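Translate structure to sequence.
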């Protein structure tokens, strides 16, 4: 069983940046790939800001921060991912995009490299079917914000070997995460509940039942959640929520998973959430959660 020492993260958006923090913080050499250097620069800046806040909160020492940053590197050259023992994909919820990425990764990565997807709605078996190494492919779904949430949902595809799944499971524990095993079904455990739940909150705004701030306050106060559903949606991004809804609704025909019209109007207006400064709430900066 090959020991995982170098972790690749494909995609430096909100989720990819968080996953990379988890890996680098756990002591793994972490290589983040993106097609845009500007996105990598932003991810590195956000990573340091998050870690600096951890130092301020006495959760890290300055020397630890510098070591974590030394573990972190970025690249726009996909060929450099050949150094990775596992590559975790964190790009758009679009099967064609994922197939294209994994096909290219398969051509450059050595046979021992495990492939994993952070997808939460698309079938692991379907994604693996376009990667060239379906037996070495696992679903590893981190929760947002990945750098603060411990849960990971681990899903084998139909062709995933037991050895590959065991390697991925042990890796998730080495990251300091808490894995649970799920079957390869839409939404796994968490998003099966969360996508319809968040859509219900959107529809309360859409119907004028209450303001977004009051809905979030009610949920946090009554249910003890650290973040309200509309705050979470702003962090996820309304454009991502639309993709999640379209994928899950297309697979399940669950009415509550259908994308609310308000989401599409907000996207058209450029109100995508925290990354654009306005979503259901307004934001003064684009710092990642916890920074």
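Result:
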């Amino acid at each position: 069983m090959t020991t995982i020492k170098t972790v690749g993260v494909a995609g430096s958006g909100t989720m990819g940046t968080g996953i990379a923090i988890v890996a680098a913080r756990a002591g793994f050499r972490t290589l983040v790939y993106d097609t845009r250097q500007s996105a990598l620069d932003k991810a590195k800046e956000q990573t340091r800001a998050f870690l600096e806040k951890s130092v301020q909160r006495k959760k890290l020492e300055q020397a630890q921060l510098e070591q974590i940053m030394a573990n972190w590197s970025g690249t726009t050259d996909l060929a450099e991912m050949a150094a990775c023992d596992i590559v975790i994909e964190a790009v758009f919820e679009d099967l064609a995009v994922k197939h294209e990425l994994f096909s290219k990764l398969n051509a450059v990565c050595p046979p021992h490299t495990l492939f994993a997807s952070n997808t939460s709605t698309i079938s692991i078996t379907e994604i693996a079917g376009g990667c060239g190494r379906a037996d070495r492919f696992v679903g590893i779904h981190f929760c947002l914000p990945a750098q603060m949430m411990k849960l990971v949902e681990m899903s084998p595809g139909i062709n995933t070997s037991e050895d590959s799944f065991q390697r991925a499971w042990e890796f998730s524990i080495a990251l300091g995460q808490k894995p649970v095993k799920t079957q390869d079904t839409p939404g796994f455990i968490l998003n099966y509940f969360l996508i319809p739940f968040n859509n219900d909150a959107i529809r309360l705004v859409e119907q004028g039942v209450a303001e977004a701030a009051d809905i979030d306050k009610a949920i946090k106060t009554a249910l003890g959640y650290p973040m309200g559903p509309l705050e979470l949606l702003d962090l996820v991004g309304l454009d991502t929520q639309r993709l999640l809804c379209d994928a899950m609704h297309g697979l399940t025909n669950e009415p509550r998973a259908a994308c609310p019209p308000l989401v599409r109007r907000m996207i058209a207006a450029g109100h995508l959430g925290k990354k654009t400064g306005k979503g259901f709430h307004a934001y003064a900066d684009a710092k990642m959660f916890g920074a």
